[in-house]
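User: My collaborator sent over this chain with a note saying "see what the structure looks like." That's all I know about it. Can you take a look?
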Amino acid sequence: MTGLIDCDVHHAVPEISALFPYLPSRWRDYCVEHGVQSLAPDFYPPNMALSARPESRTGTAPPGSDPAVLRTQVLDDSAAELAILNCLYAVQPIHNEDWAVAMAAGLNDWQADQWLGADPRLRASIVVAPQNPARAAAEIRRMADQPGFVQVLLLAFSEMPLGRRHYWPIYEAAAEAGLPVGVHPGVAGANPLSPAGWPSYCIEDYAGVSNVMQSQLMSLVCEGVFQQYPSLRVVLLESGVSWLPSLLWRLDKNWKGTRREVPWVTVPPSKVVREHVRFTVAPFDGPPEAAAVLRLVEQLGSAEMLLYASDYPHWHHRDAETSLLRHLDAADRTKVERGNAETLYGLRTCP
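Assistant: Without extra context I'll predict from the sequence alone. Here is the result:
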């Protein structure tokens, strides 16, 4: 393998009827009778500068909903050799547990048929409904052996912190299957988007998303998820990374004085994170200067924590090249571009 591995590409459901062939008749009828037109999140306002690249739009369909367009723009016209699809269709926020479980299963079958079956260079994340972790674990086990699925996808704005034991059946199933768990910004509960309540503007939500990613990372570490499941790996997707060194410093410092509260965390939290957690580099929120980039990587402890991503169809596809990769030496650049993903996702052995 010589090309890039793009670890965060977003495809979309063109319209809800596209999932009907993959849903039980009860839920097809439910959608029709209740007038459910779409579960697509509004991530791509047409005239917002940080929204989807114009060339990713095809008519009135959501950006990323045409396999041929995505294949051309992400794979054929770029240096990427493989791409991992993360579908953000709003299944996880559904309050009706039975409907959410059915939609997640239908979405996964649709991904397998319409996307993974369309191009051998595509991989995908298993979407689960975390409202019932036991049923989410069953969905992971159902799909884990299906060709092309390399990750489990959770959303960051969850009903409760993701480290809580409530969610452990999901991690047990993922570890059992040898699949990393990806955590991506997105709403999967009724909590506010900021620690202080609901923001007024999109810019507050967008610029502040790293806050919730930090909270989820601390929860996973301090609740003991990685001690319970030592083989588990977690990927923070579209989270930024420049905030990590200072967070790890504070965690280590405070752990020294409060660790009897979390006796299962037997080594400094920074060591747990460096072993078990990876971060995609789009958007790259670090400084653009070479010296500052190299200092950031040194503070992280290794370039092995970083994964290349374009965040297609968002505008961040140039972030890694212009702000990060060009400053790395050849060995570290190769790790970020593909080596770390090969190791994490076992892509050398995927069909």
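A starting point for your reply to your collaborator: The beta strands are 4-9, 80-85, 122-127, 149-158, 181-188, 234-236, 277-280, 306-307.
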